[in-house]
Design a protein that fits this description.
The chain has helices at about 20-30, 45-55, 75-80, 110-130, 180-190, 205-215, 240-255, 270-280, 320-335, 350; strands spanning about 5-10, 30-35, 40-45, 60-70, 95-105, 135, 140-150, 150-160, 195-200, 260-265, 290, 305-310, 340-345, 360-365, 370-380. It is of the alpha/beta class.
Amino acid sequence: MKQETDFKMIAKTIFGLEEILSNELQRLGARNIEVHNRAVSFIGDVGFMYKANVCLRTALRILVPVKTFIICDEKSLYSSLQSINWEEYMDVKDTLAIDTVLNSDLFTHSQYISQKAKDAIVDQFREKYGERPSVDLDQPVLRIHLHVFQNTCTVALDSSGESLHKRGYRDKTNLAPLNEVLAAGMVLLSGWDKRSTFIDPMCGSGTILIEAALIANNIPPGYYRETYGFEGWKKFLAFDEELYNTIFDAAIDKITNHNQQIIGGELSPNVAKKAKENIKHARVDDVVSVKVCDIKDFEAPPGHGIVILNPPYGERMAKDNIEELYKTIGDTFKKKFTGYDCWMLSSNIEAFKHVGLRPSRKITLYNGQLECRFVKYEMYQGTKKVHKLVVGS
């Protein structure tokens, strides 16, 4: 099948990171960039598709739309999917998986839609060859993405395969690990200059620290990835290994080494050990260090810098304990982090009140299904009055 030089792609992201992703795409050289809800569309060629997968920090997936049609029920969905010649995209011996995002009154279950779509595709092959492609949910040759918005269905190919937040450097996690894409987005939203001190005094398994190190030293997030979805494509946008290697090597050549101070603190020795292992696995242990200590005992280097933390939100803590923890965080910001911009992410709006500081910025982000606030406190040097402010929606 003849490949177009340029084509439309959609980068999926987390709510609140769309503008950051748009900026990333602009810097990479994408064209016709448009911001949507949890997504940014753009134009590029095959090489740019590879580059987007390797280099974008705040993208979850890079999708290539192939067809959009109007549907009114499951029958029209089935027949519309059958109208696509699937042999242009895969062989009968290939495996497939289908992911569906549903925002429609026509259907209630995304899994049911995925099943109907799968039936339409495999039935087409069965009628032609008497055999059918099989489903592989983990490592399919072709991952197909359906987006159903009311009566409009967009069919796209997922060039990423596994979600891009699965960088490949983290094999040790604590109970509630932070998504790497969200962590990278928080670092970029903070406006850190990549040179001043960066601190996460409640670092858990170290994700925010690692993403900060990758950003500061221009290490592409795809550096650790072993595979992408596009590597299995043999027909439409057939995988060009030589081009991919050229793109990948060019990204690696841009890595720098500035020896920033990126420092973590963690109360639990066991969790701190996991963080150190992840940091070593990500090969940033030359710029990232972690010490075992309570946040209230954390000693920040003098000067200025950025603090980002993702404290417990209170799902597994008593109300009094979570309020006390957030008061301790606020007190520690005042006592220990003069000159720093301190950011924290939480879904617990009530607990924020106990920080006792006036936020200068509030950004809505989602951590999984939880709606959160990413809140900035500027800890000025000198005697600036501290005001209390309710952090609301």
